[in-house]
Specification:
homodimer; 451 residues; eight-stranded parallel barrel; 17 helices; disordered C terminus; binds zinc ion; homocitrate synthase activity (chains A, B); transferase (chains A, B); amino-acid biosynthesis (chains A, B); Aldolase_TIM (chains A, B)
């Protein structure tokens, strides 16, 4: 009887699911006739904004590994640090341009002819020009007035366009800029045929409806595409990106895990979660979401942070269910409580594993979540190790993960070698941090840890 | 000459700062005449929603420590797990009610007389009633139709009110509920004098303008206060809270670090960052922001997670500057790039410390960020240890933190003992996880680690 109604419920659910998907309450708002929620593009800036993250020092190999992974994921653009930042930055920019990726390669320069000349020589598909237009930045950053700003912008734009590559003009700190100044410079650059104009919340304090209003206003002034860049100081970077798209912006700057200045910008994974809730078909048709976890792991290891426990989609608790809670909803279709489907991201539902261990199958669930491959017997073995340490002191998630990763490295090291690291010739204890790449960090760190 | 213009700039900045503060671009929108951005209240649910976090198992002592810390911080309400959840939940609820806190104590029950009778006996100041009103939940969670829902809601409300305590009625999964169903039940409960009605984005997929619209619509139907509850599956929980306040909602549900079901709800700290950007005076007048880091540390240790590297305000990188970047902005006033002032949160600006160590003063900066107390000599000593391990293998932030915390525990253990842990009688290796409290976890974990 109970089971019957559950099965019956399931069938009903299936037919209703279609209807709900059709009338998706989280989808684009029909009143937003300029909305690009179903036509958005991503400018991936892990290798530009992300390089400004306090803990980021990318080697050439790491940059190439990240660029390839992002290209495979399906990002539309990859933005690189300015080639005038350093000799190495210039060489890395040229190297990435030569990879022949599907994604267009951009570099990010100041609004200055010296920078523009270097940039067009690197082989990039486009140049992102930025200049501070807020009163704060006019005073302290370069001290130029708006006429001068507009003049140098036009000069740079015409120069870059004459080389047949894309150009974006962006203001910095747009929400503290005078609206009339902003609009007049945007109109001027639009007239000379810039490909995109950009709005940037450089200080990370814009709010969603404010973003919508500015984008809608700008949309009435320019005919080119609008790109947006949101810092996350007040936790609104994903939501601001969404309302920008609703207002008619087309491109969103993101980085993996959101890494960047201070606590960063709109994260790639979080934006994907937001957008799949709005238009699943579009997102799945463009982006390989099942690669998200690997890309986040690659970048997290490169900058030596852990993926936050509460990270959208890939955080340990995003799809983790606590035993006993929602017993009923396990019988009912999972999407009753989960709009995001873990399988869309190549993930599964997990059960919590730490503290009061429910046994090796809970640990196996975490091994799976970490995307490591261990047999049932191996999971039982590592569970013994965890329990043993758990008797000595309380374990947090990172402790358990370390034990699992150590164990995994130990059992797999002789078999699997990441590309570029030869077990015979590579030093098992790396001194040259420059040469690290994402996978290398995992392998070598764990090798080191075995000592 | 260079210095002159900097000093000149500084003076100009001061006078302009007043003007900018006055015309705060991130402040309440004057068009939102129902806005509660400058009158919001916080319902702190770490001890209810947070208890549903996969990794949360709070002992009575921990619950009391968290409740006291939240009360000291200045939260308006503290929400507790339903007393019918377990015998221990009921006793803990009674114990917290007896603490005599300034914050009002709420408990969260199903819309059922059995639950209501138990709740009013605990001594709470108010009861939060919740029921699923979406088609999904009507089908799978309790199978009741709207007439029945309304009837039982009215019975529970009148019963609770007859005991002279506050009552809130909330729907669950509000954004997937039929709008007419929602509004008619809200109007019914408002008529019988409920104190608040609640909107809940149970599945975490609502977006900011959608939230604004629903709140504005509801505001036209009820005269009582509106409370909102946002899950963070698509990273919009802070932004949704903000637009809800703009639309006229008054109370926001939060938890420390956002812990809760899946990846949680609006975080207390993130909301404070959002709101201080909008109305600094109001936030500073109500909440002890300088206690935020301690509360987050207490809760993080209790549920055995690390504070995410990119957490608003307290994450390692939120106020961390990379050496060499923004050299210019160090001369200019810091708020050119930072609207949020670290000093408002009792914090300071930090320099990055990991990887290519700039020396012991960088490590000292991290020691300070972790709120640990070490002398310059001790910082030099622990830096030696870090460099030594750094020669053996790459270190991530958590590695460095572990070394620092170990060192700190070692040098301070004989002197400082957290309340409730006596160094002579407490077992140095705890087996009874039930007895842990937040500070205890720090101390004992580190004791364990020394072995
Ligand atoms: Zn930026
Ligand atoms: Zn909830």
């Amino acid at each position: 009887m109970e089971m019957d109604s559950v099965i019956d419920g399931f069938l009903k659910f299936d037919s209703e699911y279609t209807e709900i998907t059709y009338n998706n309450p989280y989808g684009p708002n029909p009143a937003d006739y300029l909305s690009n929620v179903s036509h958005f593009q991503v400018i991936e800036s892990t290798l530009r904004e992300g390089e400004q993250f306090a803990n980021a020092f990318f080697s050439t190999d790491t940059k190439i590994a990240i660029a390839k992974a992002l290209d495979d994921f399906g990002v539309d653009y990859i933005e690189l640090t300015s080639p005038v930042a350093s000799e190495q930055s210039r060489r890395d920019c040229e190297a990435i341009c030569k990879l022949g990726l599907k994604a267009k390669i951009l570099t990010h320069i100041r609004c200055h002819m010296d920078d523009a000349r270097v940039a067009v020589e690197t082989g990039v598909d486009g140049v992102d020009v930025v200049i501070g237009t807020s009163q704060f930045l006019r005073e302290y950053s370069h001290g130029k007035d708006m006429t001068h700003i507009t003049q140098s912008a036009l000069e740079v734009i015409e120069y870059v366009k004459s080389h047949g590559i894309e150009i974006r003009f962006s203001s910095e700190d747009s929400f503290r800029s005078e609206l009339t100044d902003l609009l007049s410079i945007y109109r001027a650059v639009d007239k000379v045929g810039v490909n995109r104009v950009g709005i940037a919340d450089t200080v990370g304090c814009a709010n969603p409806r404010q973003v919508y209003e500015l984008v809608r206003t700008l949309k009435g002034v320019v005919s080119c595409d609008i790109e947006c860049h949101f810092h996350n100081d007040t936790g609104c970077a994903i939501a601001n990106a969404y309302t920008a798209l609703e207002g008619g912006a087309k491109l969103i700057d993101v980085s993996v895990l959101g890494i960047g200045e201070r606590n960063g910008i709109t994260p790639l994974g979080g934006l994907m979660a937001r957008m799949i809730a709005a238009d699943r078909d579009y997102v799945l048709s463009k982006y390989k979401l099942h690669k998200l976890r690997d890309i986040e792991t690659l970048v997290a290891e490169s900058v030596r942070v852990n993926i936050p426990f509460n990270n959208p989609v890939t955080g340990f608790c995003a799809f983790t269910h606590k035993a006993g809670v929602h017993a009923k909803s396990i019988l009912a279709p999972p999407s009753e409580y989960e709009i995001l489907s873990p399988s869309d991201f190549g993930l599964t539902r997990y059960i919590h594993f730490a503290n009061r261990l429910t046994g090796w199958n809970a640990i196996k669930s975490r091994v799976d979540q970490l995307n490591l491959d261990l047999s049932d017997e191996q999971c039982q073995e590592v569970t013994m190790k965890i329990k043993k340490l758990g008797d000595v002191r309380p374990l947090n998630i990172d402790d358990v993960d370390s034990i699992i990763k150590d164990f995994h490295a130990n059992v797999t090291t002789p078999v699997v070698r990441p590309v570029g690291i030869n077990s015979d010739t590579a030093p098992r204890v790396p001194h040259n941090l420059e040469r690290l790449d994402g996978n290398g960090v995992v392998a070598r760190k764990l090798l080191g840890r075995r000592r």
